[in-house]
Amino acid sequence: MFFGVFHLHRIWGLLDRKSYADFWIGIIEHKGWFYYLLMGFLAILCILGIKTFLKNLHHNYWWRWIYIFGGSYVLFDLFAIATGLEFWHKLILQMYDISASYWNILWILFIIMGGAVFVLGIRLLKGMHK
Fold first, then answer.
1. For 87, which DSSP code?
2. What is the pLDDT of residue 21?
3. Quick one: pLDDT at residue 130?
4. Using alpha carbons only, what angle is made at residue 44 by residues 86 and 103, rounded to the nearest 5 degrees?
5. The predicted structure's pLDDT at residue 69
6. Residue 115 burial (10 A CB sphere; 0-12, 13-18, 19+)
7. 8 near 116, Cβ under 8 Å?
8. Could you tell me if 8 and 111 are in contact, meaning their C-beta atoms sit under 8 angstroms apart?
């Protein structure tokens, strides 16, 4: 559910492109305490999700594949940002290009993904308490 909420914050990017892009580019480029706190938290969640998937390898539910694909992507993203991979940095700068014609499409897709993950998390929590 945390990843869902995290992606839902991107609504801010639809409301105010400049402040949203400035905030995240600033976080990524300056790597202060907030960057390390957030990236560490995301990395721990991804590692725990992948560990859960592997632990239950023969009896995973369909939705646990999100742990492998989503967790692997996020870990790669964190690695690429932390190590300053040039092609990834260029890609991020293109993602946060406020004049790009694809801006709304890109961030709406992230918001939809976040909403879907959040709703899935709520449904799974409700299912646990039945």
1. H
2. 97
3. 63
4. 45
5. 87
6. middle
7. no
8. yes
Q: Which two tokens stand for residue 4?
A: 């869902």
Contacts of 101 (CB under 8 A, 6+ apart): none
Strand intervals (E) in the chain: none
Q: CB within 8 A of 36, min separation 6: which ones?
A: none
Residue 63 near residue 124 (C-beta atoms within 8 A): yes
Whole-Å CA distances, 129 to 2, 28, 29, 45:
19, 39, 43, 23
| Model pTM score | 0.81
- The whole-number pLDDT of residue 92 equals 94
Query: How many Å apart are CA 36 and CA 20, to the nearest integer?
Result: 19
pLDDT band per the 50, 70, 90 thresholds, residue 23: very high
Mark 67-94 as b/e (b = at least 16 C-beta within 10 Å): beebbeebeebbebbeeeeeeeeeebee
Token readout for 122 is 């709520």
